[in-house]
Write a structure and sequence with these properties.
- By secondary structure, this protein is mainly alpha-helical.
- The chain folds into 2 domains: about 375 residues, no CATH class; about 130 residues, no CATH class.
- It has 27 helices and 6 strands.
- The protein has a 6-stranded mixed β-sheet with strand order 3-2-1-4-6-5, with helices on both faces.
- Helix 5 packs across helix 6 and helix 16 crosses helix 18.
- The N and C termini lie far apart (about 100 Å).
Length: about 550
């Protein structure tokens, strides 16, 4: 008995030692550049190990994003996606976009309409294209970086995105991650130009697809132009097919020029997010995480990449350049081109400020998300020259930061309360409202950004009393922008919501209950007080101020 037990322990120990050695071998191969001299079998194992690593990351992100998508309530912008996707036909959608109801091209809405046919839950259906887009981004970053450096650096570069704000847009029903995914596909195709004409086509389609999701994808164009120009200068050879692909990629700007003109006419006079030079810093801070440290990270990556371009005279031994080059000189100039592309993408905030200022458009950090592609690629290239412990640290730190998202939705899923997350906030506000009003009394939601989500999540009996009061002139006077009010005015032509002009509402009602958020676009309380109407605070709870308002009889519409 004792002998058999001892033999069992020895066998377990032997298996453990063999497994430890195998794991160590895999870790070494993962951290070894494919350009390093290894056997064909080892190279195959390294490729498969990297692929398994990407698959595990993508699977985990898919599960977390699906949970968040299913349980997170729509916010104002996402409500436009839901409303436009539910229009009866494509003609109605085209009319709504032609009127300027939303500022995005139509492709994303066709995807969400199709997704809704396959998936019964609205929250998950309208966010599925964004989830798919983010997963594609992770795979593309790995593929782009792993052709030049070791697969461990490629995994770390891909996982970096999990620690950045872009990961939250994986479950937002807006076209930001599909736009970034198309730019990543274009980078991957451009990297492989010369290995089949399909790559030139893929480059053009990727760029056109990005613009068909969001017009600010055009901010990535200078990066491709600079990179291809650098290749032309260094190698003294022009690739006409690539330039044609770059030109064809801009075709959506021509196709949707009427929509762009409408947006400029409707919203261009009083911008809600006017561009400012300081956004070069603040935009980078937001895009790359922690305030002020994000810009430092961008400067660090850009400096490292610039140093490689200017100072290195021969290809670093760790770089994997054998796949796309025939000799040492070609290999090194190929790396220079990619690094120029990386710098161009990192410069997207500066390009965005310049373009938005010239064109007179809004500029929000979300519109510049393509910059994170340059950050991820640049970090991967730099990690390729770092020692293995640093690469492992970046990988696990990024994965650990993302793992912090898991406990909340996971615990609610196990408790069976996950689905309730979409309505909890609205129910709390609804409870407060019911304490201070009776059915039939108008309830004005003074913040236009709060109104649309409430119309979806509040109880039907209160929904009939819910109003949004709009007045673009007052919005400009009190908050400096009329974009939200004009947006709601256009939207009311396509959905049966009670969106009423201020003068019409004041003429029809003498008193009402007002729900105020106190946020930036909440101009109505200030106007009512300055005009001398009776405004009485009756509650301040559950994230809202509740007022009872009575118009002064002598001049209700001043």
């Amino acid at each position: 008995m004792a002998r058999s037990f001892g033999a069992c322990l020895r066998q377990v120990r032997s298996v453990s030692i063999q497994m430890s050695r195998r794991v160590h071998e895999l870790a070494v191969l993962l951290a070894t550049s494919p350009g390093t001299v290894v056997t064909s079998a080892q190279r195959t194992v390294a490729q498969r190990t990297g692929a398994v690593g990407v698959l595990l990351i993508v699977t985990g992100v898919l599960l977390v994003s699906a949970l968040e998508a299913y349980s997170t309530p729509f916010w104002h912008d996402e409500m436009y996606t839901a409303i436009l996707s539910q229009l009866p036909d494509s003609q109605a959608l085209s009319r709504a976009l032609s009127d300027g109801v939303d500022g995005n091209p139509p492709l994303f809405y066709y995807l969400t309409r199709f997704s809704r046919v396959l998936i019964p839950d609205d929250h998950l259906a309208y966010r599925t294209p964004s989830i798919a887009g983010f997963l594609l981004v992770l795979v593309c970053i790995y593929a782009i970086v792993s052709t030049r450096v070791d697969r461990l650096s490629a995994l770390a570069a891909s996982s970096l995105l999990l620690a950045l704000p872009v990961a939250s847009y994986a479950y937002e029903a807006r076209p930001y991650t599909p736009m970034v995914a198309c730019v990543c596909c274009a980078v991957l195709a451009w990297q492989r130009v010369g290995h089949g004409h399909r790559n030139e086509w893929a480059l053009g389609i990727g760029l056109a697809g990005a613009l068909s999701f969001h017009y600010y994808a055009a901010l990535a164009w200078p990066a491709f132009i600079a990179a291809e120009g650098a290749r032309w200068y260094v190698r003294k050879t022009c690739r006409p097919r690539v330039w044609v692909a770059l030109c064809l990629g801009a075709l959506p700007l021509v196709l949707f020029r009427d929509h762009l003109a409408t947006l400029r006419e409707v919203y261009g006079q009083n911008l809600w997010a006017p561009p400012s030079p300081v956004q070069v810093i603040t935009g980078s801070d937001w895009l790359f995480g922690v305030r002020h440290l994000g810009f430092v990270l961008v400067i660090g990556i850009a400096t490292g990449i610039a140093y490689r371009i200017v100072s290195l005279r021969s290809p670093p031994q760790r770089l994997n350049t054998s796949t796309f080059a025939k000799n040492t000189a070609e290999r090194w100039t190929g790396i220079t081109e990619e690094e120029v592309l990386t710098l161009g993408l990192l410069a997207v905030p500066a390009i965005g400020v310049t373009v938005a200022t010239i064109m007179g458009g809004d500029l929000d950090p979300r519109y510049m998300l393509t910059a994170v592609v340059g950050g991820a690629i640049g970090l991967g290239l730099l990690l390729g020259s770092a020692v293995a412990p640093i690469r492992w640290f970046v990988l696990f730190a990024s994965l650990g930061a993302y793992a912090l998202r898991v406990p909340g939705p996971a615990s609610e899923l196990l408790a069976g309360t996950l689905a309730q997350r979409t309505v909890v906030a609205a129910q709390l506000l609804e409870t407060t409202i019911r304490k201070h009003t009776n059915l039939g009394v108008p309830i004005v939601v003074s913040d236009g950004l709060q109104y649309l989500p409430l119309t979806r999540y509040i109880a039907p009996d209160l929904r009939h009393d819910l109003y949004a009061v709009v007045d673009p002139t007052s919005a400009v006077d009190y908050v400096g922008s009329d974009s939200v009010d004009r947006n709601l005015q256009l939207l009311r032509g396509y959905v049966p919501l009670q969106i009423v002009d201020y003068a019409d509402f004041a003429s029809a009602h003498r008193s009402f209950l007002m729900v105020s958020s106190g946020e930036r676009f909440d101009w109505l309380p200030t106007r009512l007080v300055r005009d001398g109407h009776d405004v009485t605070l009756v509650a301040n709870e559950n994230g809202a101020h509740i007022y009872r308002v009575a118009f002064v009889p002598s001049d209700p519409v001043r």
